[in-house]
From TrEMBL:
Name of the molecule in the record: Raucaffricine-O-beta-D-glucosidase-like
Enzyme active site: E403
Record's catalysed reaction(s): deacetylisoipecoside + H2O = deacetylisoipecoside aglycone + D-glucose
Compartmental location: Cytoplasm, Cytosol
Family: Belongs to the glycosyl hydrolase 1 family.
InterPro entries: GH (IPR017853), GH_1_N_CS (IPR033132), Glyco_hydro_1 (IPR001360), Glyco_hydro_1_AS (IPR018120)
Metabolic or biological pathway, per its Swiss-Prot or TrEMBL entry: Alkaloid biosynthesis
Length: 552
């Protein structure tokens, strides 16, 4: 059975998503300051596969072309994030506003609106000005709350007359877990190598860890501290928006990531409880406070107050109900088996959960269809289940699916045509959209929109350029960073087409973009900035260098 946008309400928003560091590039242009990711990728050998976002997709210079792609796809909305370091290079208002950065986002927003596309803006997508990390440790210190409020107020003031959808943070769990437990993301604080090896056995993870492990940090305390400050910053920003900027007519929420967790043995109460506990430690860690003003009971039962500081009555009141909508990012699912409550090493966020995640069930079969991305198993029913779960547990909130998508491995030996043949992505998107529709019909879940991750291939954080999530292929070996529609882009375009036209064979329809590619209108190459630290070459994905001429 095929599915079409007409199967959803007319006001349902369809779009695609990106984030600033992953696509913008231009890190040394327009007065932008240094971010935590700039510091990590350019100063720390071995991180992010030795790659960086110095150039990325160079959407900083090619935003008009990218908006053109959005329009040709037929998107209702485009989700992007603000680079904190681009608008506030010093991290706070008192250190000065970068008007060039403000102008860039004004231009992007105006270009979107001129093409009938709603901007859907994220204030924080894993980026922190490096100066705030160096001055007081970023989210480990309460001073981050005031500085984050500076960012929020500046953006509401400058862009709020045209932006009607705001999210305060993207995936706080990911930012905290990989930044303060495993040490893969900045500020790279986590367990020692020896302790990390023990923890890995308790929480199954398939990504490579050894070269990314950081020995600086306390994963039994710091994740909870940073998350607490993040939650309070979120609540303060929502309060600020509602008190000073609500007249702009917008809505504000937060984007949380969730897996679906199945008990390893459905007949064993201990596994059922473990699956719920792990869900509490992922989604509930943030969703319970902003809904009920407190942490989930399973967290307070398992983590003492000296490590997980409880909220004061005043903080609880401010947190409770601090969202107009929930942004949900869903990609995959896991089995969970109960783990021992006894652990000989130091306490950790991982061991606090008393549950071990597994990709395969007791029969040896994976929970979903394996993909080229080793952590992502396609389990569309999990989308339906997590939506129903959120409706029941959190009082039926309005939900936007702010990310859902599939990654392909980068294959340097593929031709562009081969790389654009992504039928598995089409199947993934189609089946997840079907489950969203079923959840809306059968369970009356209040879903308001859907954003594919991602509009285009980009810098995938610790994975560098080794995975491609885009609807649009970006040729990172081409000095123009040309964009090519994948089959999935053509499928999505037809899915969104209100004329009900038949879906042609993807390889025979390249009408999405003139000559199948979008390039800069200028014949000059892009400003030279390497995607590899301290190099005169641009490292492309698997480390294959392509010579580029320096701009003189």
């Amino acid at each position: 059975m095929e599915i079409h946008r007409s199967d959803f309400p007319p006001e349902f928003l369809f779009g695609a998503a990106t984030s600033s560091y992953q696509i913008e590039g231009g890190v040394r242009e327009g007065g932008r300051g240094l971010s935590n990711w700039d510091f990590l990728c350019n100063s720390t050998p071995g991180k992010a596969q030795g790659q960086n976002g110095n150039v990325a997709c160079y959407s900083y210079g090619l935003y008009k072309e990218d908006v053109k792609i959005c329009k040709k796809l037929g998107l209702d909305s485009y989700r992007f994030s603000i680079s904190w370091s681009r608008v506030l290079p010093g991290g706070r208002l008192s250190a000065g506003v970068n008007r060039e950065g403000i102008q860039y986002y004004n231009n992007l927003i105006d270009e979107l609106l001129a093409n009938g596309i709603q901007p859907f803006v994220t204030l924080h997508h894993f980026e922190v000005p490096q100066i705030l990390e160096e001055q007081y440790g970023g989210f480990l210190d309460k001073r981050i709350i005031k500085d984050y409020l500076d960012l929020a107020e500046l953006c509401f003031w400058e862009f709020g007359d045209r932006v009607k959808y705001w999210t305060t943070f993207n995936e706080p769990w990911t930012f905290i877990y990989f930044g303060y437990v495993t040490g893969q993301f900045p500020p790279c604080r986590g367990s020692s190598s020896e302790e990390h090896a023990k923890l890995s056995a308790l929480q199954h993870k398939t990504h490579h860890r050894n070269p990314l492990v950081c020995e600086d940090g306390d994963p039994g305390v710091e994740p909870y501290t940073a998350a607490r400050n993040l939650l309070l910053a979120h609540a303060e920003a929502v309060d600020l928006y509602r008190k000073k900027f609500k007249a702009q007519g917008g809505q504000i929420g937060i984007t949380l990531v969730a897996h679906w967790f199945e008990p390893f043995h459905h007949h064993l109460e201990r596994d059922i409880n473990a699956a719920q506990r792990v869900q509490d430690f992922m989604l509930g860690w943030f969703m319970d406070p902003i809904t009920y003003g407190r942490y989930p009971k399973s967290m307070t039962d398992n983590v003492p107050p000296e490590r997980l500081q409880r909220f004061s009555e005043e903080e609880s009141i401010q947190l409770r109900g601090s969202y107009d909508f929930l942004g949900l990012n869903y990609y995959t699912a896991r089995y969970v088996v109960a783990a021992s409550v006894h652990h000989s090493g130091p306490p950790s966020y991982i061991t606090d959960q008393h549950g071990t995640q597994k990709n395969k069930g007791p029969d040896g079969n994976p929970i979903g269809e394996p993909t080229e991305c080793d952590w992502l198993f396609s389990y569309p029913k999990g989308m339906h289940k997590i939506l129903h779960y959120i409706k029941q547990r959190y009082n039926d909130p309005p939900i936007f699916i702010t990310e859902n998508g599939l990654a392909d491995k980068n294959h340097p030996d593929y031709t562009v045509s081969e790389a654009c043949n992504d039928e598995t992505r089409i199947e993934y998107l189609r089946e997840h959209l079907k489950e969203i529709r079923l959840a809306m019909i059968e369970n009356r879940v209040n879903v308001k929109g859907y954003f594919v991750w991602s509009l285009m291939d980009n810098f995938e954080w610790a994975s560098g350029y080794n995975y491609r999530f885009g609807l649009v292929y970006v040729n990172f070996t081409d000095r123009y960073l040309s964009r090519f529609p994948k089959n999935s882009a053509l499928w999505y375009m037809n899915f969104l087409d209100k004329k009900y036209r038949p879906i042609p064979h993807p390889l025979k329809n390249n009408a999405l973009l003139e000559d199948e590619t979008i390039s800069p209108t200028s014949t000059s190459p892009l400003p030279y900035q390497t995607n590899a630290p301290n190099s005169g070459e641009m490292v492309v994905h698997e480390g294959t260098p392509t010579k580029r001429h320096r701009k003189t």
